[in-house]
């Protein structure tokens, strides 16, 4: 007899020894607003690595910005009010700028009364910490590479009454960092420095449109050049990467259209006394497709050779008056034609017939009869459901067709259309590729299996040629042009290919590699899913591919390959990300040191790996029982920043001046004021399907060896890669916060789930139940006091598991689907599409519709096993849920209620799939913990559970206004 249920082994333990610490009071939900922590994700080093700035403070309250010298740890602190601020250093690392907002209480009051939140800007000299403060600043920017200026645009003065000619501009202050001279420019709406910071382009948008235009200021000599004046609005100002040319849009109102009409403006030869200015009309049907105009939804940009400008065009919508005028003209024409026909017929009949008073009475045609009813027609042949079209209406309105204007010959070229909706340009911008979904769009909307034809597009002419037919996109579409624009990398049917854009020859570059590039962990209904690629090398000679464990440098012609990793498959080591430490590089430059984050699949230890410059062998620099973030290298120094965290230690930030990351300096230490968890155990177990899987068991803060604890089992899909993550106390959108439970004496179990097609629910049972039993076998989990919770897909699995097992004492299912048959053809209202594709190619993991797979749908639907439920259950399902239809929760609740099973359903009116309103987040979190405390800790049952309560009454915590 095969023995599935005992743990095979328990890996190393990441924890502190709580015995040595003073006993701490568990966190309460009322403690969360005052929980202080450091926002390490937003910590910003200076370009020379000598300074670090970060924000700290409570979850809800007033914050502090700290500026620290990384060499001597000298630091300066600034009160910045109740909002986090962007942090910016100038290029030379001599100044830092940041906002100071009003205090937290004022911000809340202003938000409630819809008053503006005015901010101050602090400009601090790092040489002597001298600070200059500016009031009512809306936007700020340093002048890029030369770094000699900062531009500050102030909040505009809002007039009592707004109209079409109300100016949108406000004062722009240019402040010289060296001599503190200040220059004010009025009514500026948009501005941008070029790359080297010597030029400032800006637009003026004044009251009454007086003096509106686009200007260029030379910051080296103070000369301002007027490029164009017009009673119009100028926007979307956009410099090219080199800072040698820029483009923008100009718009004017037109009575015939609902939106302004846009004109394209391009400026180049910017250092000349008279820069070259080009304009292209937005309403020229001789050049742009009839009924289209220049789109406002994309910023135009110059080609690299400055011969053309790329921009978007979109359909122009006539005003209601114009549409009615056009409709009236059509009706009048129809009436007249019908009247003429009737008169002709009557003329041949009895001459005594009396002619009717008007033509419309003769024909029965009336303008009102032609008005459209308020209704929707759903047709089985529609490529997109009507609900999808309606939901995506705003997106469709903003859709624009990529086009270009050839300046030399004044030629317009449309590169895309309604089928080929977007074009990815090659680096040389002479060719691009686009995906045509239209031949497969209908079937894709049904089963979710996505295909597309790949076309190459000649940029000069707009002509296309089919390059790849029916490419399967569910497996992967990480295609990309080579740096020399001569080839395209793509994936198909288990291998990577390179397409020659000139000959259309396709080369399988992985067929000679003794490995597979099919993802072993992907268990959706997808054929041969790809493992992934990190893209091209800078010289265009190689691509960097990964199999399930190892990295490969593969020649673009497939004739050679080099394994960069040292048989990581044997060690179960794999990369999780490429660290982009050179943001200015478009591709991976192997002449420079390159970094990757790695994880040990057996232990969940993480670390950093280095591929040294001009080397073909990756070195693992270290693995530890922590989550190590990707490396951030500063621009002008060999200074490397990264964070580490664990279940017992909040994120800490380190810096190393050594590329091997030896002896790093800790710049930000653990900010947690109390221990929230004693660590985590990694448990290995065998599922009922025979697969060896893992689960993470997070220990309660007061853990004592040998004692068993009440445990919450939290499920979704695969969760164990987060073993070493820190949980920050917070009000959760899904109700559950790990830190709050471990702080309050609970263990938390998070198992991995591996799925078999056509058995998603049964797969959850086969994995979760053995995981719980293996966790019980450790002695840490109290077998008699285990609960389960999940949200969305986890909510479905929770609602299903309690129909198959009674090992859980209580359960909470958030937004669960409960009837796969009825859910299959309902609408995913957030997108407007049907759920059918989700079932057949995504999370549902079913292979057909229920009519051909009835047993699988019924077997995995909680509602069909509802009579088996013995576990008390809370369902949280909101009436505006756009992901899992509200009726799913209602159906399960009413079924359990009819069977007199203990169940409560919580509905937060107006909320979507998760909870967005803080008051609702608090309410759900409190109710969930009260419920689990009752069943797992023996505390008194809350009235809303045991007796029922008035509609939307708050639990006692909220009634006491403790929040």
TrEMBL record:
Residues 347-364 have a biased composition (Polar residues). Residues 1-20 form the signal peptide. Residues 769-938 form the Peptidase S9 prolyl oligopeptidase catalytic domain. Coiled coil: none annotated. It comes from the Bacteria. Residues 347-366 are annotated as: Disordered. InterPro entries: 6-blade_b-propeller_TolB-like, AB_hydrolase_fold, Peptidase_S9_cat, WD40. Keywords: Hydrolase, Protease, Serine protease, Signal. GO terms for molecular function: serine-type endopeptidase activity. This is Peptidase S9 prolyl oligopeptidase. PANTHER family: DIPEPTIDYL PEPTIDASE FAMILY MEMBER 6, SERINE PEPTIDASE S9 FAMILY MEMBER.
